[in-house]
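Quick one:
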Amino acid sequence: MPTAAQRIDQLRREIERHSQLYYVDARPEISDQAFDTLLKELEALEAKHPDLVTPDSPTQRVGSDAAGSTFETVPHSAPMLSIDNTYDQTELRAWYDRTSKALGADDLTLILEPKIDGVAVALRYEQGKLRRALSRGDGRSGDDITANVRTIRAIPVQLRGPAPDVLEVRGEIYMPQAVFERVNASRSEEDQLANPRNATAGTLKQKDPRNVIRGLRFAAHGKGELSDEPPSESAFLNTLRGLGFPAADFEVTAGFDDAWRFITRFESKRPKLGYATDGVVLKLDGFDLQAQLGATSKAPRWAIAYKYAAEQAQTRLKHVEWMVGKTGRLTPRATLEPVFLAGTTVQHANLHNLGEIRRKDIHEHDAVIIEKAGEIIPQVIRVLPELRKPRAKPLAPPLKCPECGEPIEIEYDAKRVNEIAQHAKRVEKERAKAEKEGRPPQPIEAPNELTETDETARYCPNPECPAQLRERLIFFVGRDQMDIDGLGEKAVIQFHETGLLNSFGDIFTLKDHRETLLGLERMAEKKVENLLRGVEEAKSRGLTRVLAGLAVRHVGAAGARVLAQHFGDIDKLMQATAEDLADIEDIGPVTAASVHDFFQSHAGRHVVQELRDVGVRLSEDIAAPSSAAAESPFAGKTVVLTGTLDGFTRPQLTKQLQALGAKVTGNVSKSTDLVIAGESAGSKLEKANKLGVEVWDEATLMANLPTG
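Output:
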């Protein structure tokens, strides 16, 4: 029987080997489930033996120790320049000819690789260990995103085999299409990701690494600082593969004609790659030749990107259907005459909202131009009014829910709504001032009234709407919510249509209908047993998963975690006022109002009672404060931080105060016990003084913090 230390070492090596096989070699030997089992065993052992935890352990990729961190700006070892690009073969040939002439060579050896539509990053390794990851930033310096990058399993934290003392690898972090679709399927309608690149950039800026989207990939394509430099780009990329990096697929060509043949071939491969690309990067292969040509202040002279024009197609709009989602949001979906585009036949396109429809002036049966945004999502780019049919009318939006007939609610652009509200306040202020001074009020120019162009969403407010219920059930059982194995979208629809699933509570009483389940199509005995086991296991998932699954408007996975950790159980959450909710750090007033309205509604309370009655755990284990918290002057106090403190970042101090038993919130209210004010404290300090809340400066804070 191996010791704990030996088993931990064995598991770490095995997990890293399987990561290499999956992400770099593309020949996995075990299933995802088997991999997760190994990881869970390692997590359990390290929890029992915390003295054996090391920074490079696979379990540390979750980045929990860096939760709440801010991003330090760090200079790059060498500038991360952008690359000049062209969409034109003639311009590409001109670049090649200029380069040939400058080097005095006829046939240039080039390395060609896909231009992946992701986020550039610089990874610095010292003695084979990942020390720092920087975003591109302004090219001269970037944000330190090391904690977030460590969560990406495609990026090694410990290199395989002998490595240079210093190795800086540059490459692209990107989101595969399958991950993008999985994440969007688990999110509310108003929280949908726009495209894989924006989603990648956003998730790498998460303050808490635990919130970084899982499944990101990495492709190495260049170098920064090196203690040992190989002779060429291709040799360098091959070396990286040997060290455990997934390097970009590349081809070495001789001469312009070879390069152009690769570009032409690659265009037909793009739709099948499973990730977004927008062109091909051409670089001189030899590092000596790259150094000879040098760079301008913006871009290297030895590289260029040939970008493909987004593929477009003309088709005609047949009709528009307003789809009702799980939060009640109505999304207009265009049905089109089928057209082949970027490798697939397109028949539908998302029109987003009425504001978008009005801005594009879309009419019934219009001829339209579509393209695939990021090679994934079909979009209507513009209409062709010259081909519009006589007497065609603008698209009419629904005034009632197409599923249940409930009158719809409309949301408008928040900035425009705020403009109008601010104008009303200015008018009232001027009126009061003029009345006091005994004069007529001065006219204040009003912003334009809200129009359909400003509309951002239509909602069905009926939580018992049949369409919402079906979509909510599908969402609730999903992997990132209650994670019920065997209860996917098709099964939910099948059970709903047969009358087995008409509420959230019905999910947890499926065991009472075992014989009925066995009589359904595609429901063999083993499948039913696995399903019922998954349902039973889901009961103990806890409050975070339940809140994430209920699809409360504006509450995603991160917001669910914040609420669950803050309140600990559902009853305390349901008793909270909208003001209490808005006081919580990372919960804004819009989300607070939405949460409060949901749990005060008949439907919201009914759902909670249903889940309670069937034994679903509606509480969360809250991390206990440190032993020092019992005697701390912060214990049980609600604290607000404002201004700049010399000795702390706000996340550092927040974490320390929470460990000492404080509840740190974002807004000053009557329930606030203490405000800690640094330099340039503003409106929060003013409000604290107005309400008579105790205020400490940094010196008083330091005097009350434990030493050592």
